[in-house]
Design brief:
By secondary structure, the chain is of the alpha/beta class. Helices cover 30% and strands 23% of the residues. It folds into two domains: 94 residues, Urease, subunit C, domain 1, CATH 2.30.40; 308 residues, TIM Barrel.
Length: 430
């Protein structure tokens, strides 16, 4: 499938179910868009411009993925800013935040400006996350204020944790003063060293070096205590364990300013998927136990986990077609995220449509202190178009991403995005 971006001066979305819990909107109606602005929400009887028939379809605020690896600069053979934006649009996302662990890392003003410039003409808005420490070396803080001025949306040393408590304290103090969160990858490296999968019954049966749950939970606990002490804005990336959910829930009850994300793969797969030594199931944090999965879903439902992010991690074929222990960690997720969540959570009534919108559209923007995106007259048109009933089969050969590394090939899913509108541009994928 080749993405075709249309410049649209005016477009009418006809007979759509329009849903936005931010403005308590859920009705079947029309949306008239002119010059990038929602001009009318209501019946439109005469219109001569482009019309999209949305009967039995849903229109929601444009989705945002706040955890994406675009690999540019340095590994453009895996993904670029533009191919990543194409993949995001194909998956129904109108905005994304890209992580700084590129080669070299995004750790100075010019790096942030480079990413912004690469994406400036695309439909998808790209918000760079800047490194916490220079070179992500865990030694010296970056020039945070300078990078915020250039357009950074937050700070992270993702790929590894902020190495010391002292650095995390200073990072939270400075970032919070600038109104942005520190996003931490919670992993005690002394406990996870050489591990390749979750520590449990399956790793014991397979005889594989493992990563215990406490490798995540120890850093979660550390970060929560420091955030409480500094009153800092803390966001915890790709949470995967029941213990981490419990710690975050308790911290929120005390008023700690913490938010958290999990990923679709932790919600639909467990470490049982690793039994066949499929390197496409190797990720960090690793796929956990069934109990961990249940607690993640409960955490989503009760608000402990604020958002769903993909941790889209493209890799070349040779990075995965090798022995499990030397294969790269990570999977792509932009083009399967919505279908997985709709099929395995919404259809099973584990999440409502309104909750999905909050987790995948509203909360990511709030966490990064970005402008709100509401479906109301006079607001910018930033929308995702959804077909809730379509049955489709995952086929990575049709993906927009340069990389194909994900374990969902040939999965049968229900529900898919079929278009996005943003910045006066539109993409229809069916």
């Amino acid at each position: 499938m080749a993405i075709k971006i249309e410049q649209v001066k005016s477009v009418l979305l006809k007979n759509a179910r329009v849903v936005d819990p931010q403005v308590k909107l859920d009705q079947i109606t029309d949306i008239l868009i002119e010059k990038d602005i929602i001009r009318k929400i209501g019946p439109v009887r005469e219109f001569k411009g482009k019309t999209v028939d949305c009967k039995n379809k849903i229109v929601i605020p444009g989705m945002m993925d706040m955890h994406v690896h675009l690999r540019e600069p340095g590994e453009e053979h895996k993904e670029t800013v533009i191919t990543g934006c194409h993949a995001a649009a194909a998956g129904g996302f109108t905005e994304l935040a890209c992580m700084p662990n590129t080669k070299p890392p995004i750790d100075c003003r010019s790096d942030v400006e480079f990413i912004k410039e690469r994406a400036e003409n695309h439909l998808v808005n790209v918000h760079p996350i800047a490194a916490v420490t220079i070179g992500q070396a865990g030694e010296q803080l970056t020039e945070m204020g300078d990078m915020i001025e250039a357009g950074a949306a937050g700070f992270s040393d993702d790929g590894k944790p902020v190495l010391t408590a002292a650095l995390m304290r200073r990072a939270l103090e400075y970032a919070t003063m600038l109104g942005k969160p520190v996003i931490d990858h919670c992993e005690d490296l002394s406990l996870s060293e050489s591990g390749v999968m979750h520590e449990g019954k399956i790793s014991a049966v397979l005889g594989m070096p493992s990563i215990p749950s406490i490798a995540e939970e120890i850093i979660v606990a550390r970060d929560l205590l420091i955030a409480e002490y500094t009153e800092g804005l803390l966001h915890l990336a790709h949470i995967s364990t029941a213990g981490a959910v419990r710690l975050i829930r308790e911290a929120k009850s005390r008023g700690v300013r913490v938010t958290a994300e999990t990923c679709p793969h932790y919600l639909v797969l467990t470490d049982e998927a690793v039994r066949g030594f499929n390197t496409l199931t190797k990720m960090n944090p690793p796929l956990r136990s069934e109990n961990d999965q249940k607690m993640l879903i409960r955490g989503l439902k009760d608000g402990t986990i604020d958002t769903i992010a993909t941790d889209h991690a493209p890799h070349a074929i040779e990075d995965k077609e090798c022995e499990f222990q030397v294969a790269a960690f990570g999977i792509i997720g932009l083009e399967t995220a919505f279908g997985l969540i709709w099929t395995h959570l919404v259809e099973k009534k584990l999440l409502t449509l309104e909750e999905l919108i909050l987790k995948m559209s509203v909360h990511p923007r709030q966490i990064l202190q970005l402008p709100e995106n509401k479906i109301e007259s006079g607001a910018p048109a930033n929308l995702t178009l959804v077909d809730p009933d379509i049955m489709w089969t995952v086929d990575n050969t049709a993906f927009e991403s340069k990389s194909k590394n994900m374990p969902f090939q040939d999965w049968k899913l229900k529900g898919k995005t079929f278009g996005v509108i943003n910045r006066g541009k539109m993409i229809l994928t069916v």
